[in-house]
Amino acid sequence: MNRSLLKIAAVPIAFLVIGIVGIILSLPSSQLWFGLIFVAINIFVTVFLVDRLIKYRREQQWTNVRSITLSAILAHLCDIASDIYLEFSAAKVDLSSLDRILKGRNTPNAATPDAFEEFADELSKIHKDIRGESPSTIVADFYKKIQWDLDQIQNVLTPLVITSSSEQRLIDALVSFNQTQRELINGIRSHQMAGTHEAFPALVALVRGSGRLYATMATYLEAGSSPEKKE
Fold first, then answer.
1. How far is CA 113 from the centre of its chain?
2. CA angle 97, 98, 102 (to 5 degrees)
3. What are the tens digits of pLDDT across the range 107-119?
4. Burial of 146 per CB tally in 10 Å (0-12, 13-18, 19+)
5. pLDDT (tens digit, 9 = 90+) per residue, 72-125?
6. How many CA atoms lie within 13 A of 148 on its CB side?
7. What is the DSSP letter of 89?
8. What is the DSSP string of 110-177?
9. What is the spatial distance between Cα 153 and Cα 146, in angstroms, rounded to a whole number?
C-alpha cells in the first residue's frame, strides 16, 4: 500500500516540478535563483506531506494488529510471573504481589508494573536452598517452563510490533526486554558450566524488566491511539 501511495503521489509531483521548472527557465536570469529556491521549498513540502500520509495510513492499517499483539505480550508477561510463583512458592518469603500482577493479565492495569517490581523484590529475598537445591539450579531446570512464553514474545510478537509501529519508544522497550532474556540464558549456562549462581539474579532482573515492558505496553493500549497524542 505504501508503494502504491508513492506511485500515485509521484505523478502529480513530477508534473508540478516540470511545470515550475518550465516557468523558471522562461524567467529573466535575475529571477532564476528565486525560482530555484521556490522549487526546492515546494518539493520539500510535497514530499513531507506524502510521508505524513503514508505514516498515517500505515498506522491505521495496523491499529488492530498492534492492539492484539500488545495485549498478548501483557498476557505472556503475567503468565511468566505466575509460573515463577508456582516454582518458588515453597520458599519462606511473601510472594503475595502476584495477585495484583494477574489482575492486569487480560486488560491493562495501572498497578501491575509496580506489582512486578515488588514481586522482584520479594524474589530477591530468597537466599537459601529450596528442596535441597540452590535458587540458580532451580532456575536452570525451570527455564523450559517459561521458554515458550519468552519465545512467543521474542520471535513472534516483537517482529509484529516492529512491523506495525514506527514508535521508537515501543520498539526500544521490546529490545530491552529481549536483552534481559538473553542475560537469563547466559546466567543459566554460566551456572551450569561453572556453578556461578548467576541464573537466579538474572531471573529477578527478568521480572523487573517485565514490569518496565508492561508499563510501556499498557500506556499504548490505554491511550488507544498513536503515542504522539499521549506524550
1. 15
2. 125
3. 999 999 999 999 9
4. buried
5. 999 999 999 999 999 998 887 788 899 999 999 999 999 999 999 999 999 999
6. 4
7. T
8. TTHHHHHHHHHHHHTT--S-BTTB-HHHHHHHHHHHHHHHHHIIIIIIHHHHHHH---HHHHHHHHHH
9. 11
